[in-house]
Amino acid sequence: MIQTMHSSLSHLFSPRSIAVVGASATPGKIGAMPISLLRKYDYDGLVLPVNPRAAEVQGLTAIAGLDAVDTPIDLAILAVPAVHAAAALERARPGQIGGAVVFTSGFSEIGAQGQTLQEQLCAVAQARGIRLLGPNCLGFMNIRRRVYATFTPAAAGGTVAAGGIGMVTQSGAFGAYAFCMARDRGLGLSHWISTGNEADIDVADCIAWLAEDDDTRVIMAYMEGCRDGEKLRHALAAARAAGKPVVVTKIGRTQAGAQAAASHTAALAGDDAVYDALFRQYGAVRARTIEEFFNLGYALDTWKQPPQGRRLGILTISGGVGALMADEASDAGLTLPSPAPDVQARLLERMPFGSPRNPIDVTGQAVSEPGLLLSAAEDVLAGGTYDAMAVFLAAAGSSEALWPTFETFARTMQARHPDVPLAISALFPPARRRELEALGCLVFADPSAAVKTLAAVVRPRADGAPVAAMPVAGQACLRGTYNEVQAMETLALAGIPVSCSVVVQDAEAAVAVARSCAGPVVLKIVSPDILHKSDVGGVKLNVLGDEQVRAAYAAIVDASSRHCPQARRDGVLVAPMAPAGVECIIGVHRDPIFGPIVMFGLGGIFVEVLKDVSFRLAPFGRAEALAMIAETKGYAVLAGARGAAPADIDALADALVSLSTFASQHRGELASVEVNPLVVLGQGQGVVALDAVITTVSAAATGQARA
Length: 707
Hints:
Layout (H helix, E strand, L loop, with lengths): L1 H12 L3 E5 L11 H8 L5 E5 L5 E2 L2 E2 L11 E6 L3 H9 L6 E6 L9 H16 L3 E3 L5 E4 L4 E4 L2 H4 L5 E8 L2 H14 L3 E6 L8 H10 L5 E6 L5 H13 L4 E5 L13 H5 L2 H11 L3 E2 L3 H13 L9 E5 L2 H13 L9 H10 L9 E2 L3 H4 L3 H10 L6 E7 L8 H14 L5 E5 L3 H9 L3 E3 L2 H10 L27 H10 L8 E3 L2 H11 L3 E6 L12 E5 L2 H18 L7 E6 L5 E10 L3 E8 L2 H4 L4 E5 L4 H9 L4 H5 L9 H17 L4 E11 L6 E3 L2 E5 H6 L5
Parallel strand pairs: 1-2, 1-5, 5-6, 6-7, 10-11, 10-12, 12-13, 13-14, 15-16, 15-17, 17-18, 18-19
Antiparallel strand pairs: 3-4, 8-9, 8-11, 20-23, 21-22, 21-23, 24-25, 24-27, 25-26, 27-28, 27-29
């Protein structure tokens, strides 16, 4: 299937024959621009203008319709009004046209009437085996093969260099702007693609195709939304497997969904959190600004490989700017290890007025003493301590007299330390900057941008390979509603350790169970209709002795009856108090696009106030679970902050994997899961779930599960 899709899109994006339906000789018309561009940039394939009212268009013989062509056509460009698009394509024979680009608007973006026209167009294309790009799009460009299937004026103002960046965008306006930005910044493109309404081909299809394209090394994508989460996951996985970095700008970073949800997981899993999890999980690098979007694409296309870790070495001729860069590095999560003591001693011997720590201030002496910069860098990197190096040269880069020093420095560093990416911040003339970039160095005018870019492109983990979605076949179906005990039993079967508990129907039975526990117990109301038991007085902790148990039982029954008179009550749970540990919360939220999303966070203030949580799309493996835990600020608590013993992080990761598998197996039935708290015991002692809520899709739809 993948090969078939790749082959069909290759006909479209690398055509040897192009028919322009609605071809025009009038400058400025959308039917004129692609022919003008194809001729201007010397496209060497066949171009067929289609216009029933003209014998020739721009010096090329015109035909009346696609049915007048006997030979196969790789690409048809439709530049006709929306009401005529389907009819124009219908004149083609089945199998005659490989792909079509539809420029015109007036389809689904305008409402129901346009949606009908779009459906008619898709039906015609599908019947004839034609892949559609658009409608309502600016088309595409294949720079290396000089294919300009677009009407954007941006291309008429000059093309970009052929290079290794494949760019795909859902927005035509942004796409035209991005094309101009790439041209102005000297970025080389392999392809530029605008997807428009995405009636057939979407951004995910393009990412997957670019992942297999020999001319593409880096993929840059601009997204406004996604309708097929599974397809996007597979596309990002394909790019990762091909070793091609993906830089994504996804707009709409506000929390648009799950505002009134009952669980913490749903309330925190807004649209942006889910996309963040997706990109992190599949190794895509997210850009938050347009400047960052281009900086990241530039870096990943220039360097032979991105940094392998977060250890940064800074060389600067200005101590103040070095401090600025150090602050940026700290904010971005980079570390600044100092050189070894013997290296520091040697540095001070050569530059007595400098600073041998990190940032390493080589002072203006590096400008007056040509070999100092190189020798200092060589000495610092000899121990293998650093994953990347940032160098600040200020205005010295503009000095033509110093150019041989800087060129020798860059050339030698790239030859001797090819695995240590180098970013130089200086005011180089454009021609000199391009020479350094050709050597594999990044060049920035702004040292802060250099550091931020280095931090953003640190190579994603190689051990977090995506896990295939688990099949539903053979799995028992979920029941309609769950009380706490039923939820805990279900999760125990899924591999999540739970506390031992007994449900009783009267106070004396509660006393009998409590006596067998030989210590303090907890009593909780059991009801599928009461999610937050503490809020209604349905929980009593550290209950010890017969009288306290009787009183606690009575108080729970009375409080739940008063606060939730309509709630079903299945009894009162009695369980031993859990041993001391770190309280966490894990949960599942069902995203309408991507399916089950798993959340992790520490309990209490961390989730309630600080919202210190992480997300992943289910299912995932142990390496991903460990990364999910480590990226929270609360990780330090689990690791043993301030001399405390570390918690059992491995057991916590296993619980997250089990939950993700359970969620994937029941993705069609499950609305949400919340395990709160999940107590993480000391290292090697495991975890234990003390409370759980499972809400099925059917229960959520009928309102059976409520607080």
